[in-house]
């Protein structure tokens, strides 16, 4: 397992990585400052979710491709369900960390209010506050269902709050199902909140369920147990993978207890067909509690609508950024000399751009007196110009002499032994403008492409793409460039 090296560096000349917030089984989460954000922007701080396939111990090509596809699906899901009560994607990219590891990343909005689980640890919620949060969650989740997305991991930890803690947004669509069509159900979710049809606790027992298809009622099951936690202050541990049949002793005498218990009992039925079939139906049952609640001080006034209403926080935009197209790209082994040189160069650049404590880039301070750099610059420039002139004259003399001797037959013609040789690409690989990876790609050679070698340097080959192995979906489309020889199978003349 190898974690990315990103702390205290600037990512893609835009995002200053400030802190590592955590990591999961396939991604690392960082807090970053967007230096391009305008003053007062709600998105000056962002979350960078970096895909790290090397967090998997048994990584192979198929698993890597699956992880990348899932990562891209998360971006697609977020864009499809863009809503005021769902976390927004702000951008994406592909970059290299300080050790030279290539990774894809998503840029998400940063919600500084923490998650609902953290809030509940500090203080219990009033009934009004719990209802306000649940209504927002219902609005966002119902919107996702209307667009064919099932979240599959609704729980307090995935419900994030704005700075003022008035708006809640659904996060982490990493295991979301993008289609309601029948397909194999994978074991995902958190045991306490996940329904039997896809809970890890029910692995191997799905065949014993009366109805095992995945429907929006799976999210309603998890949402109802989340509501249980918000109303009672206790997670439903005693009902993991089971129907809720009672409430904790501390809240059984509340005015809302009987109505709430009836709604949650129905929503957590083992048979998905017995549950509420839409989020709006679930909310209709809960909205009756709002009329019972006598607590109104310090809370927004909300009408008892049967349709859950969204809360729109400052900075929300319904416009999604460009859709990412992440690809599995072969790179040179990390122990090669070219990669080591690239890493050293990258470290120098990142060190130079490493942000200071106040957020501004940190530059070396030479403690020179005012205007002293101008005085020193002139003689240095003169010497450099004289040196370049000398090099130019000397090079011209050598070239002229060599041309004269070759014309008289005194020197043989120098021919490239690879000029007529062709090869086949054994994987997808980027074309580079020079024989190293310290540059941006200019094209993509797909697997089984035919190329003609026109030049060579060490183990790098300059090639012309004769025929692509398959159609490309890339913005870079040059047909001549450099690539590493280990990704070519020589084909003879």
List keywords for this structure.
single chain, about 500 residues, alpha+beta, six-stranded antiparallel β-sheet, 8 helices
Question: Can you describe this structure?
Answer:
The longest helix is centred in the last third of the chain and has 36 residues, at 372-407. The protein is an alpha+beta fold and 493 residues long. It has helices at residues 61-80, 116-122, 127-146, 217-232, 257-267, 279-292, 337-353, 372-407, and strands at 10-11, 15-23, 27-34, 45-51, 89-96, 102-109, 159-161, 168-170, 422-425, 429-431, 443-445, 450-457, 460-467, 480-484, 488-492.
Topology diagram in text:
Layout: E1 10-11, E2 15-23, E3 27-34, E4 45-51, H1 61-80, E5 89-96, E6 102-109, H2 116-122, H3 127-146, E7 159-161, E8 168-170, H4 217-232, H5 257-267, H6 279-292, H7 337-353, H8 372-407, E9 422-425, E10 429-431, E11 443-445, E12 450-457, E13 460-467, E14 480-484, E15 488-492
Helix pairs in contact: 3-4, 3-6, 5-6
SSE string: EEEEHEEHHEEHHHHHEEEEEEE
The assigned structural class equals: alpha+beta
Low-confidence stretches: 331-376
Order of strands across the main sheet:
1-2-3-4-6-5
Helix content: 25-40%
Distance between the termini: 43 Å
Average predicted local confidence, pLDDT = 81
């Amino acid at each position: 397992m190898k974690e990315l090296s990103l702390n205290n560096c600037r990512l893609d000349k835009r995002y200053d990585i400030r802190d590592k917030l955590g990591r999961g089984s396939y991604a690392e989460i960082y807090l970053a400052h967007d230096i391009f954000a305008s003053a007062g922007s709600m998105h000056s701080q962002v979350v960078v979710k970096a895909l790290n396939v090397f967090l998997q111990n048994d990584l192979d090509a198929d698993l890597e491709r699956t992880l990348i596809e899932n990562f891209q699906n998360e971006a697609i899901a977020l864009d499809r369900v863009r809503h005021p009560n769902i976390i927004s994607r702000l951008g994406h990219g592909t970059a290299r960390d300080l050790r030279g590891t290539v990774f894809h990343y998503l840029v998400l909005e940063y919600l500084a209010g923490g998650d609902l689980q953290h809030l509940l640890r500090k203080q219990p919620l009033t009934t009004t506050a719990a209802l306000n949060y649940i209504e927002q969650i219902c609005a966002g989740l119902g919107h996702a269902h209307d667009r064919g997305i099932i979240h599959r991991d609704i729980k307090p930890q995935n419900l994030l709050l704005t700075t003022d803690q008035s708006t809640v947004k659904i996060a982490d669509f990493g295991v979301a199902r993008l289609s309601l069509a029948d397909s194999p159900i994978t074991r995902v979710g958190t045991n306490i909140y996940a329904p039997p049809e896809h809970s890890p606790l029910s692995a191997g027992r799905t065949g014993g369920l009366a109805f095992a298809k995945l429907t929006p009622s799976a999210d309603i099951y998890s949402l109802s147990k989340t509501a249980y936690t918000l109303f009672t202050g206790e997670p439903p541990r005693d009902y993991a993978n089971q129907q809720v049949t009672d409430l904790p002793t501390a809240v059984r005498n509340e005015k809302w207890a009987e109505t709430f218990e009836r709604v949650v009992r129905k929503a957590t039925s083992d048979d998905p067909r017995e549950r509420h079939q839409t989020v709006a139906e679930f909310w209709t049952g809960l909205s009756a509690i709002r009329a019972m609640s006598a607590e109104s001080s310090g809370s927004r006034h909300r009408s008892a609508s049967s349709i859950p209403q969204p809360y729109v926080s400052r900075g929300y935009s319904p416009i999604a950024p460009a859709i990412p197209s992440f690809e599995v790209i072969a790179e040179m082994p990390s122990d090669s000399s070219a990669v080591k040189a690239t890493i050293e160069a990258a470290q120098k650049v990142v060190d130079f751009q490493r942000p200071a404590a106040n957020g501004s880039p940190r530059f070396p301070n030479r403690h020179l007196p005012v205007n002293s750099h101008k005085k020193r610059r002139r003689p240095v420039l003169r010497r450099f110009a004289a040196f370049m002139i000398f090099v130019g004259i000397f090079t011209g003399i050598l070239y002229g002499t060599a041309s004269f001797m070759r014309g008289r037959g005194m020197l043989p013609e120098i021919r490239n032994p690879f000029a007529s040789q062709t090869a086949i690409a054994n994987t997808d690989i980027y074309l580079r403008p020079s024989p190293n990876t310290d540059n941006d790609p200019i094209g993509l050679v797909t697997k089984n492409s035919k190329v003609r070698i026109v030049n060579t340097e060490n183990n790098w080959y300059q090639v012309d793409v004769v025929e692509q192995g398959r159609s490309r979906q890339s913005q870079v489309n040059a047909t001549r460039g450099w690539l590493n020889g280990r990704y070519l199978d020589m084909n003879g003349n």
